[in-house]
Amino acid sequence: MPITKDNIGGVILAGGRSSRMQFQNKALLELGGKPLIAHVIAGAEPQVAQLSINANRDLERFDEFAIPVVPDNFGPEAGPLAGILTGMQFSRNKLPNIQAVACFPADVPYFPADIVAQLTRVLNTESTQVAWLCSGGQWQPLFSLWSLALEDVLSTALRDGLYSPMALIRSLPNSVLNITDIGPSDFANLNTPEDLASARMRLQASKDGR
């Protein structure tokens, strides 16, 4: 049966240590007068049937967003793959007909309003198990759509110490969504204080009409 929005769960991956952001909680840093994750929620929530946040610290500070927050149980070294599995497990318990989980990185505030629909079309057309994004020639494996049939595969990978989403993706039947026409802010990863400062400048410039 083809995957549709009604059977897609979503997870925002906010469980990392943010070492390049001086260990600040990136998801809660301010951009345009609101926390970075608020931009991600606004873009992600309309695209899935059920959205959750994978976070491992400052959990009470996410209460204002009224989105379920689910920590993972794999430790700080497991990275986003643990968050994807956690999103699968949470969504399976919330959506009776779930077939797939879409993931969104918490440090990328701007992305197309139909990115999940585009990933879904690729996954349905090519009948693979995971679809992932390449934007402007840059790999973006954390914008991806994973068949729920992979839940045990992810569990095994994590138990075996395989923590790289891209390494696991390449071992599976996968499809890539190539997007070449992107705006200056789309898919911009805000990994460092300099990245965040640049994003604030771009946002202010757009408000000033420059």
Account of the protein in words:
This protein is of the alpha/beta class and 210 residues long. It has a single domain, classed as Spore Coat Polysaccharide Biosynthesis Protein SpsA, Chain A (Alpha-Beta Complex), CATH 3.90.550. The chain is 32% helix and 21% strand. It contains six helices and eight strands, in the order βββαβαβαββααβα. The protein has helices at 36-44, 80-94, 115-126, 151-159, 165-170, 193-208; strands at 8-14, 30-31, 34-35, 50-55, 100-105, 130-135, 138-147, 174-179. The strands form two sheets. The protein has a six-stranded mixed sheet with strand order 4-1-5-7-6-8, with helices on both faces. It has a two-stranded antiparallel ribbon with strand order 2-3. Strand 6 (130-135) and strand 7 form a beta hairpin. Helix 2 packs antiparallel against helix 4. The model has no long low-confidence stretch (mean pLDDT 88).
Q: Tell me about the biggest sheet?
A: 6 strands, mixed
What is the CATH architecture annotation? Answer: Alpha-Beta Complex
Helix content: 25-40%
CATH class: Alpha Beta
Class inferred from helices and paired strands: alpha/beta
Based on Cα principal axes, name the global outline: globular
N- and C-termini, Cα separation: 48 Å
Summarize this entry quickly.
The protein is of the alpha/beta class and 210 residues long. It has helices spanning 36-44, 80-94, 115-126, 151-159, 165-170, 193-208, and strands spanning 8-14, 30-31, 34-35, 50-55, 100-105, 130-135, 138-147, 174-179.
